[in-house]
Design brief:
two-stranded antiparallel sheet, alpha+beta, about 140 residues, three-stranded mixed sheet, Phage tail protein beta-alpha-beta fold, about 30% helix, 4 helices, rod-shaped
């Protein structure tokens, strides 16, 4: 990715931050075209003074991202959402990692109530007492 100061193809960062965590009142402007996620994150964190780490599996490309006058948090979330990434903060360091995909939830059938289980048990016991079904007896199978 090339960084130009032209309006057409540029990456402009506007922030006035101190070291450590980004402040909510700081504003960031980004204009990224065909940027790798690493370049995009570098642009977001460039002027903040905040530290970050990329976990294994962080990759992707952002075809276009144009945000203006947004908070650091919003700019970060825009970049992460575009590449299905998430972050957490530990000891003031942003850890960027692939978003954990939850397996689809399987809808379980409700288990039978106690009454239904008791009725089924009684039906089985009654069938055992009666022996084979009448049509089986009448045909001479037993």
């Amino acid at each position: 990715m090339r960084l130009f100061l032209s309006v057409k193809n540029c990456c402009v960062i506007v922030a006035g931050l101190t070291c450590g965590m980004a402040r909510a009142e700081d504003r960031i402007t980004l204009d990224l075209k065909n940027a790798t996620v690493q370049d995009a994150l570098s642009a977001v964190f460039a002027e903040t003074g905040a530290k970050y780490v990329l976990a294994e599996g962080v990759h992707g490309e952002i075809p276009c991202l144009n945000v203006s006058g947004v908070s650091f948090e919003t700019a970060l979330k825009c970049v992460l959402r575009a590449c299905e990434l998430s972050y957490r903060v530990e000891n003031g360091i942003y850890i960027i990692e692939p978003k954990v995909k939850e397996p689809p939830k399987v809808q379980e059938e409700p288990s039978p109530s106690v009454e239904e289980q008791l009725a089924a048990f009684r039906a089985r016991k009654q069938a055992e007492k009666e022996g084979p079904a009448p049509f089986i007896r009448s045909r001479g199978y037993v």
